[in-house]
Amino acid sequence: MIKNFQEVLEKVKSLKTKKIAVAVAQDKPVLEAVMDAKEQGIADAILVGDKTKIEQVAAEIGMDLSKFEIVEETDMRKAAMKAVELVSTGKADMLMKGLIDTANFLRAVLNKEIGLRTGMLMSHVGVFEIPGYDRLILITDAAFNMYPELKDKIDIVKNSVTVAHSLGLEKPRVAPVCAVEVVNPNMPATMDASILSKMNDRGQIKGCIIDGPLALDNALSEEAAAHKGVTGPVAGKADILLMPNIESGNIMYKTLTYTTACKSGALLVGTSAPVVLTSRSDSHETKMNAIALAALVANQLSKNK
Q1: Rounded CA separation 116/114 (Å)
Q2: Which end of the chain is more exposed for a tag (fewer CB within 10 A), N or C?
Q3: Environment class of 37 (CB within 10 Å of its CB; exposed 0-12, middle 13-18, buried 19+)
Q4: Smallest Cα–Cα separation from 57: which of 97, 21, 29, 96?
Q5: What is the DSSP letter of 168?
Q6: Contact 256, 266 (CB under 8 A)
Q7: If residue 221 lies in a helix (H) or strand (E), which one and from where to where?
Q8: Which pLDDT value is given to residue 305?
Q9: pLDDT at 282 over 90
Q10: What are the distances in angstroms from CA 205 to CA 142, 197, 241?
Q11: What's the Cα-to-Cα distance from 109 to each of 91, 140, 198, 290, rounded to whole Å?
């Protein structure tokens, strides 16, 4: 089981090098991350975009473009489509957003003809290395699905389990997080949590252990769970926190990012290949972590085929 991002990087370097297609690659922070990923043996890259602008940025950061394949396309939407096509046709293993707005990028990802649709719901998974914890904590969904219904949460769980498996967690513990740890008909999230737990008991959701509802303290702290008399295989030991909606997920994600000395990386899954969708506010380290995670997930998906 991988317990921190240093182990993530070491694991990726031990695997066959994956290739990432960068959509509209003329973006300085993205090219810096791609350059370092190449130098550290984490991933190769195909750069899709305006070649002249890519060369200008590369000159600024001292990037040797002779080590990278460049696909010329000055139109941003077409560049995004081309990058997606490289992944869907197997010429690249994963996808990364460059200097293009998220809406147009995702339109290319979900294109019916050459996109990365699988029939599963696409969802966002954040992976955190938090000081004081002996394991990586996965949080979903903080960025993409706003108010998931039960059927959506089933896919969100399955997507996060794929990421957990890539980290060496054979049976990740999933905590559907709610405000309380008891089922309350007036609180729909607790009802969803109980149904997800029963579906897992019956083998309808495989590859993990789901138990809930659990309040956040009972999901992360064995001491808090014991104090409240909350028992079960997930209480205090959660690997995956399934948040009830985008507000709670986003607040949790940003609270960890801005108030703790954590390390993190995130990606979109539920697609036929992992998608790196970084924020401009993400640090260089976070972008690198996201690329490394995507490489691990790409390796896992290839084993699942």
Answers
A1: 7
A2: C
A3: buried
A4: 29
A5: T
A6: no
A7: none
A8: 67
A9: no
A10: 22, 9, 16
A11: 15, 20, 33, 18
- Two tokens, residue 258: 């801005």
- Encoding tokens for residue 238? 């959660």
**Global pTM?**
0.96
In the numeric block, the tokens 């904590």 are attached to: 137
- For the chain, helix, strand, coil in percent to 5 are 45, 20, 40
Q: Summarize the confidence of residues 176-180 as an average pLDDT.
A: 97
Tokens 């001292």 -> residue: 62
Confidence class for position 303, pLDDT limits 50, 70, 90: confident
| R_g over Cα of the chain | 19
Tokens 């990278």 label which residue? 68
Q: What mean pLDDT do residues 244-261 have?
A: 96
Q: Could you give the CA distance from residue 47 to residue 51 in angstroms, rounded to a whole number? A: 9
The total of other beta-carbon atoms located within 10 Å of residue 106's CB is 19
> What is the C-alpha to C-alpha distance for residues 43 and 120, in angstroms, rounded to an integer?
26
Residues 131-167 pLDDT 10s: 999 999 999 999 999 999 999 999 999 999 999 999 9
Residues 6+ apart with CB under 8 A from 39: none
